[in-house]
Amino acid sequence: MSAKTALITGATSGIGAATAKYFAKNGIHLILCGRRQERLTTLKEKLENHVNVHTLSFDVRNKSAVKEAIENLPEDFQKIDILINNAGNAHGLDTIQDGNTDDWDAMLDINVKGLLYVSDSIIPKMIAQNSGHIINIGSTAGKEVYPKGNVYCASKHAVDAITQGMRIDLNGYNIRVGAVNPGMVETEFSQVRFKGDSDKADKVYKGFKPLQAEDIADIIHFVVTRSYHVNIADLVVMSVDQASSTIVNKK
Ligand code: NDP
Ligand code: 8X3
Fold it and tell me: Superkingdom of this entry's organism (predicted)?
């Protein structure tokens, strides 16, 4: 069987970067996406001993940039077997009455519309090749709503709905569609949520053993390596210390 190629959004950090490393070790060629080109270049240099790596720097909110980048991929990277829709973040943690409308825009534009723009460029390729695998990174925040999570939770509930919608609409095209929904994972996520306030960000993961990006990468690799007729439609994963968004066994 010939080697597969995966396009990973949000590959400059956290879950996306860990998945890129995991895929490279296991012979999956890579198209790495993110805004921070320097980080993409460093990762490419690290991984291209194992597999072919191409980088694409765009903001997923920029519809025409997304389209142009994916339409103009070099020949060797035009067949995309796996799409990991991972780019996203929370911006702020506020009650709805104290919410910042710029944060709301960011979460809905990146986590929801950005995921749609990237998918819109890749789904026609998968339909034409009669194969493909789309994994959307949702969240436990897409399964329940927690205090001050309002719009972030809404964005991840949207990802849940879009995943279901994709699976329904793409049924019959031999394309697998599923979601991986992590609980708390120690990445740059909270740094972004709290706008660089490291004290606040570090506190989120203190007193218990949170998931690591590598744990999610391992699961994503498991999902993509099942027999082709097996589609893992929806997977929720939490630390043993976490029972729900608000119940975390902190010492
Ligand atoms: P990180 O902050 O470590 O990584 C986020 C990634 O998204 C970065 O690579 C960043 O790249 C990219 N990104 C953010 N905004 C944009 C944008 N506008 N355009 C393009 N890329 C963008 O967080 P995680 O690894 O934790 O998050 C990855 C996914 O996992 C997100 O969808 C998040 O919601 C989800 N998730 C995270 C959990 C956690 O607890 N950490 C739990 C459940 C789900 P760059 O800045 O270079 O553009
Ligand atoms: C990220 C997990 O609980 O911080 O999606 O919202 S949480």
Answer: Bacteria
152 given a catalytic annotation: yes
Nearest alpha carbon to residue 93 among 157, 148, 152: 148
Residue whose CA lies nearest to ligand 1 atom number 48 = 35
Atom of ligand 2 lying closest to residue 245 CA: 3
What would the pLDDT profile of 152-171 be if each residue is shown by its tens digit?
A: 999 999 999 999 999 999 99
Q: How far is the CA of 51 from the centre of ligand 2 (A)?
A: 32
Distance spanning both ends of the chain, measured CA to CA? 49
Q: Which of 135, 216, 115 is nearest to 175 (CA)?
A: 135
What are the tens digits of pLDDT across the range 28-68? 999 999 999 999 999 999 999 999 999 999 999 999 999 99
Q: Which residue in the list 22, 117, 146, 152 is annotated as catalytic?
A: 152
Name the architecture of domain 5-237. 3-Layer(aba) Sandwich (3.40)
